[in-house]
Amino acid sequence: MASRTPPSRPVGAVTRGTTNPNRLRRMDRWITAVHGPELRRSHDPVAVDLGYGAAPWTAVELLGRLRTAAPAAEVVGIEIEPARVAAAKPYERDGLAFRHGGFEVPLPSGRRPALIRAANVLRQYDEEQVAAVWARLCGRLAPGGLLVEGTCDEIGRRHVWVALGAGGPRTVTFATRLGSLDRPSDLAERLPKALIHRNVPGEPVHAFLRDFDRAWAAAAPYASLGARQRWIKAVRDLSADWPLADGERRWRQGEVTVNWAALQPRTA
Q: What is this structure's pTM?
């Protein structure tokens, strides 16, 4: 009798699995606004929620939000921990499925995702491992696809993510609930793994946050008009020295997006 080939082991390590409803709403909102048109044009608009955690809330929410921009969108939640996949199965419905896997991003029938969202997944990895994971995930994308990888706090008030395509990193987005912010550098604790250890003098991300704090302080008179107006004024002043990749429409959402080339770490 011919022996059966055992299934390959998923690539990656089990995360803590911490999750909460609406934790990733800021990232989802940005994805829908920025990548929604590409998803609508895609012949197979499938998105992957990679490492969704101990409960399936983020995958369920991602499907609903993507479908506001791309009604044919589908979401596949992928988890490396089998028990989490089993717990999520009852939530499956049209356009939403859950699979066991890791960074190999296993999709049936050779499908390639138009979007991979990996939130709070690489936090536990070493900085030296990030580039290889990014390359592996980007290699699984469909043409024109997007990888969004980043970190947020437990209730989604503060979030920083990197957007990548086939050519590598493109942008870094800082997003926050403005009422919770004392100064922009508060977001430093949510920098993704590729940047969090680079928030030191001499590194571009440290200089960016320093300049952002200075612009925020200079915009203090606008605080009487509300935190949003102060943020917009600070970001507008910041744009004189930093290559921002968005405009006031996104700034009003408590976001600012910077070209990756301006923040990428200096070589050791």
A: 0.94
Strands 168-176 and 255-259: antiparallel
Q: 85: which DSSP letter? A: H
Q: Per-residue pLDDT tens for 196-229?
A: 999 999 999 999 999 999 999 999 999 999 999 9
The crossing angle, in degrees rounded to 10, of helices 204-218 and 227-238 is 130
Question: Which phi and psi (to 5°) does residue 48 adopt?
Answer: -115, 130
Coil, strand, or helix at residue 172?
A: strand
Place of tokens 């571009």: 204
Q: How many CB atoms lie within 10 A of CB 20?
A: 15
pLDDT exceeds cutoff 90 at 10: no
Across the range 42-59, mean pLDDT stands at 96
Q: Which residues contact residue 46 at a Cβ distance below 8 angstroms, ignoring those fewer than 6 apart?
A: 73, 74, 75, 76, 107, 111, 113, 114, 115
Count of C-beta atoms within a 10 Å radius of residue 231: 25
Q: In what order do the strands lie in the sheet with 255-259?
A: 96-100, 74-79, 46-50, 115-119, 146-152, 158-165, 168-176, 255-259
User: What's the token pair of residue 182?
Assistant: 């004392």
Give, for 149, the enclosing helix (H) or strand (E).
Answer: strand 146-152
* Cβ 79 vs Cβ 98: under 8 Å: yes
**pLDDT reading at 62 higher than 80:** yes
What's the burial of 170, exposed, middle or buried (CB within 10 Å: 0-12/13-18/19+)? middle
Token pair 């921990």 is found at: 81
For residue 162, the model assigns a pLDDT of 98
